[in-house]
Amino acid sequence: MAEPDVKRGGWTIPRLLAIGTALALILFWIWILSGAPKKQNPDRLHDRAWVARSEATCAASMRRVDALPPAQATKDAKARAEVVERADDELATMLDKLTADRPDDASDRELVGKWLADWRRYLGNRRDYAAALRKNPKARLFVDEKFNDSIETVVSTFAQVNDMDSCATPTDVS
Question: What global pTM score does this model have?
Answer without folding.
Answer: 0.76
